[in-house]
Amino acid sequence: RNLKLSVENCDEQLVSALPQISFYSSSQFSNSHSPGFAKLNRRDGAGGWSPLESNKYQWLEIDLGERTEITAIATQGRYGSSDWVTSYSIMFSDTGRNWKQYRQEDSIWAFSGNTNADSVVHYKLLQPVIARFLRVVPLDWNPNGRIGMRLEVYGCSYQSDVASFDGSSSLLYRFNQNSSQTVKYVISMKFKTLQKSGIIIHGEGPHGNSLTLELYKGQLLLHIKTGTTFPLNSSADGNVMVKLGSLLDDQHWHYVGIECTNRHFNFTVDKSTQQFQINADFTRFEINEISFGGVFSREKSGMFSKRSFHGCLENLFYNDVNVISLAKQKRQMSIMGNVTFGCSEPANVPVTFAGSESFLQLSGAQQKDSMSSSLQFRTWNKEGLLLTTELYRDAGSLWIHLSEGKVKLQISKLGKILVDVTAGSGLNDGQWHSVDFNARKGRLSLTVDKEMSSSGHANSLLHVASGNHVFLGGCPERKNTQECRNPFHVFQGCMRLMSVDNIAIDLIQVQQSLTGNYSDLQIDLCGIIDRCLPSHCEHGGKCTQSWNTFYCNCTSSGYIGATCHSSIYEQSCEAYKHKGKTSGFYFIDVDGSGPLNPQKVYCNMTDKTWMVIQHNNTELTKLKSSSGITQHLAYFNYSANMEQLRAIINQAEYCEQELFYHCKKSRLLNTPDGASFTWWMGRTEEVQTYWGGARPGSQKCSCGMQGDCLNSSHYCNCDADKNEWTNDSGILSFKEHLPVTKIAFGDINRVGSEAAYKVGHLQCHGDKNFWNAAFFNKETSYLHFPTFHGELSADISFLFKTTAFLGVFLENLGIKDFIRIELSSSSEVVFSYDVGNGPFEVRVKTPTPLNDNQWHYVRAERNVKEALLQVDQLPVRTQKAPKNGHIHLQLNSQLFVGGTASRQKGFLGCIRSLQLNGVTLDLEERAKITPGVKPGCPGHCSSYGRLCQNEGKCMEKYNGFSCDCTFSAFTGPFCTKEVSAYFKPGMSVAYTFKEPHELDKNASSQSSSIYSDLTLRGESIAFSFRTTQAPVLLFYVSTYYQEYLAVLLNRNGKEEFNLTSDTEFSAIRSVVIGKIYDSSDFDPEVSRLNALGFSGCLSGVQFNSIAPLKAALLHPSSSPVTVRGQLVESQCGASSPSNPFAAETTHSLSDHSGTADTSEPIVNAIRSDSALIGGVIAVVIFVIFCTLAIMARFLYRRKETFQSREAKGPKPDESPDFPFNNEPNSQNMQSENQKEFLM
Predict the structure, then answer these.
(1) Which residues span the membrane (predicted)?
(2) Residue 422 forms beta bridges with which residues?
(3) Are 833 and 862 in contact (CB under 8 A)?
């Protein structure tokens, strides 16, 4: 809290009444251009201040007489001249030393100045400044004139109570009985110090409660303890330690606020606030005495290894009590040590080496028999020159520099290193570190931070004494002169307390050009800032920094980008599926760049894309009666947390979870009228008394809804209370109640009661966001949404398709700021924005037109470091943001999608899956009520039809598409899952066509594939096989005219083709795989092989548009197939082809383990019921009949073979009375080094 005399209107003129002696400047052009004439609207003297030279080292300073609150500034040029300043910065100070630069949006703020000599430019400060001295630094000025300025400063008087502590003093405040039992505690104050460590506040209460605010290495640490002991590094329950702030030992005022309500805390340092709470079992945190400046009693001080606070506190309040005012009056306060009520500040003149051309040059000392130097520095850079000199009498070059965060002393002559000493480590941490160098009589020493453990020594025969000049930080622009050579990086950071040969360097004399020479230095201030606090690295990215910038290490975070903003994972299984991925484990990030972390799920890519979220209790669990136990509680912990689960469920179109309850004399819901024995909870933590398959609130099971329970007077089978096993099972699908988190089973305590339960995984399908689209059919139409809030980080992604040449995808405006993405031509997308530094654009030109009515992907991101734009899979275009200036994007209009507020350059076409910072906009819902815009967008096959493989046909749907595998030998969502079966000798599959005369009778209904290939001039045959049998008959086609086609494998493992044909291969009768049973007119060779039958695996069998094996396995009742033997679908033909879409397999979710890749599923973690695939030989045959000519063409390829492995299942329950187990069905397939062929 600040005690102000004028609170309501803090806008008084502060400069106009000041005497001329209150004005100072770096220089003046003449007496009539002195700083005393720099008052707004005055014409005295030469009409304002002008310095002797116009350069970046000039400044105008005002002494306001006392600490004052400054709220605004106004400037003019020099009257009647061409002299004015076009931009400037301001600095402030309490003492006229140790200046602090005014910063806004984490940048040194440059104010826009004047454009002529007479107009007034007024600026209101976003953050008021409390200071006595104000310094204005011109940055740019009229190029046709000189620096010239008149100004006024606005604000009001400022009063405060200040106390100074010397490191061994403190104040103790003991509360009365009523105040100590208050529910809320609020402590607020400001502090300033040059010391990097010390205890500022320590409070104690009943039951061992304590609160300690500690300054440690320039950070504030708040320790909260509930208990009887207080080790500061304790990690026991109830002990909390929170860090805030950085570089707080800069001798500038910093605000601190601590607010406690019961066990909830708000901790604020300057502009950063952190909220936390202590142990949930603890209801209220109490303290009854508090000391400021350290721990009050000497007995208690032994509890801390830290020293007390050395510095000043201002406006110290505890619950509206002015503590310093009470101490002045000596009321309710105890004072220990020397506490003074003022703030005396030590002389501290730092210097900032800010740029690549910064250096300080000093004359060498007169003594020539030794050399010494000392300085303190702070920096974030690992490298940099601290000091160099050419030694006396050309003894060599001496460098003291930073290397990998260590201080190194090197002496070199003629390219040879004569001395190399290293001291310290990790010195680029932003803290002040001291360096002391001494050389005398051949003995050299280098010490860091006054610690002998951080020192290095060397002996040298060289005579080490400084030369004519000593350089600090760098060398003049003329590099590598004989006077100064710097083979290292320049130093960027702050220095202070510098001396050479025991002579202290007076930086004020340097600034006044009375001694030395310098370039690009900021004298009397330390301009270091912590760019990692607050950190702009998102999602757990680790922030590191150098002097000029910061970096985010996104390793293992699951995010990428300059600020770790963008997720590397897709947001749903649906998105993975439409990138051609197959069933397996994947990481999904359901809210993209939002706050939720990625989680691992199982994606089951069937016709519907199921997202499966596992939990820890999937086994069938038995419950038996036990005396004294009235209820069994089962808990279910999921692989995703509750916020992630809520987002997954809300995004899905449908979710379900299956419940099983097997019972023997154990009632479930106690229907119809009794209190339910069993209940369960979902994410809403509400008790539910309905079971799977029933409606919410019905207190029924599935059979009760269907009316087919064992006992019609009950609504659950188990409620019949029979002394025999029965069950109630069903699916829960009411999304608001999912997932199941807890179940209580009640009727298990009677003698003879037995039960078992099982809860399936949570399964969801459908992504409401992925296909959410709108069609814009008028240039003047648009959708509007609430203002987009992406102040520091903004990412926008969407898909579009159009036939138009240009159009605005989206736009959001502010007073000056804006953000826009548009199609500027048929082959260029532009992302533009303005955060106050002027318009900024990123453009991507594409090699092919974008108005081809195909879906195209656009993603734009803007953060404090860069802006980027990506179109489709083209390289990302990136542009760096300005290092200084505005960083907050401030918008206030509605967000326009598909157009602009001016209704110009509207977009014509479809926009789909529009997301802003991970939040999907519901385009369809808004389009339903907007003229000129239609919900949804047809025509997905034009972009996604390529995903349908193996003769699969793309079929349009309202939301997306599907692959019709009717005429494919494959199945699955993309027609990539092979249909395979293992044949034994004697097994046969025959696909029979209609006779020609039947075809004539049914000519009007020739739509079936049964009639499609009766008379053709060409056949296409494709299949794969694996066998150890040779020779063998593989494939046979016959006609009603006694013609046939046979594919054989000879003794050498080579294919042979026996064909008989007339001019056409007409009236096909049947296609047979396996043994042929219905033909007697065989070629002798074919007949001999047919007698042996076929033993092995056949897969993907296709004859023209007929898939006989698929028809026999999947559609036996509706297809003209005849099967002999026991034909069962197998995975014996599964392969891993080069086709990225072809390795699709649907797996069961039992016993999964392993880790998930960013895009590929975990294949090895999934159990298969087949052996591993052996060798692969691919053959493609195209047989074309042209009169009497027959041509056959095939491609042959072979790979290695592998031994097979059998899948092992879990052992069944050994109880003969328990009829349930968890063993999945399994088949073991023989593989015996078989060969596999694809034809």
Answers:
(1) 1171-1196
(2) 408
(3) yes
Residues with Cβ < 8 Å from 1063, sequence gap 6 or more?
1185, 1187, 1188
- Helix ranges (H only) for 187-336 are 298-301, 323-329
Residue 676, both tokens: 């339910």
Work out the percent of the chain whose per-residue pLDDT is above 70.
84
Mean pLDDT of the chain: 83
On the question of a cis peptide bond just before residue 138, with omega within 30 degrees of 0, the verdict is: no
- Residue 280: what pLDDT? 55
The DSSP symbol for 958 reads T
Question: CA–CA separation, 1149 vs 614, rounded Å?
Answer: 9
DSSP 946: G
Assigned token pair, 85: 């300043």
Task: Assess contact for 597 and 644: CB atoms under 8 A.
Answer: yes
Model pTM? 0.79
Per-residue tokens: 767: 């992504």
Residue 72 confidence (pLDDT): 96
Q: Report the distance separating Cα 1046 and Cα 1057, nearest Å.
A: 6
pLDDT (average), residues 237-241: 76
From the number of C-beta atoms within 10 Å of its C-beta (0-12, 13-18, 19+), residue 417 rates as: exposed
Amino acid at 811: E
What is the rounded distance in angstroms from the CA atom of residue 671 to the CA atom of residue 721?
Answer: 11
User: CA–CA separation, 51 vs 138, rounded Å?
Assistant: 11
d(CA 1230, CA 916): 54
Instruction: Name the pairing type of β-strands 1235-1238 and 1177-1178.
Output: parallel
Distance separating alpha carbons of residues 1204 and 1190, to the nearest angstrom: 40
Owner of token pair 């999912």: 738
The per-residue pLDDT for 2 is: 43
Angle at 937 between CA 934 and CA 939, to 5 degrees: 145
Checking if the pLDDT of 1211 tops 90, the result is no
Give 852-905 pLDDT, tens digit per residue.
999 999 999 999 999 999 999 999 999 998 877 888 899 999 999 998 877 778
Query: Please, which residues have CB within 8 angstroms of residue 863's CB and are 6 or more apart in sequence?
Result: 536, 561, 562, 563, 565, 792, 793, 794, 881
- CB count within 10 Å of CB 1188 equals 8
Helix then strand then coil, in percent of the chain rounded to 5, is 10, 40, 50
State the greatest distance between any 2 C-alpha atoms of the chain, in Å, as a whole number.
127
User: What is the DSSP annotation of 718-786?
Assistant: GGG--SS-EEEEEEE--GGGPSP-EEEE-S--STT-EEEEEEPPEEEEEETTTT-EEEE-STT--EEES
The C-alpha atoms of residue 1183 and residue 1013 are separated, in whole angstroms, by: 14
Give yes or no for a contact between 496 and 349, defined as CB atoms under 8 angstroms apart.
Answer: yes
The CA-to-CA distance between both ends of the chain, in Å, stands at 85
Whole-number Å distance between alpha carbons of 1090 and 1076: 7
The burial of 433, by beta-carbon neighbours within 10 Å (0-12 exposed, 13-18 middle, 19 or more buried), is given as: buried
Of 114, 117, 141, nearest to 48 (Cα)? 117
Q: b/e string for 1148-1163 if b means 16 or more Cβ within 10 A?
A: ebeebeeebeeeebbb
Cβ neighbors of 522 (< 8 A, separation 6 or more) are 351, 352, 354
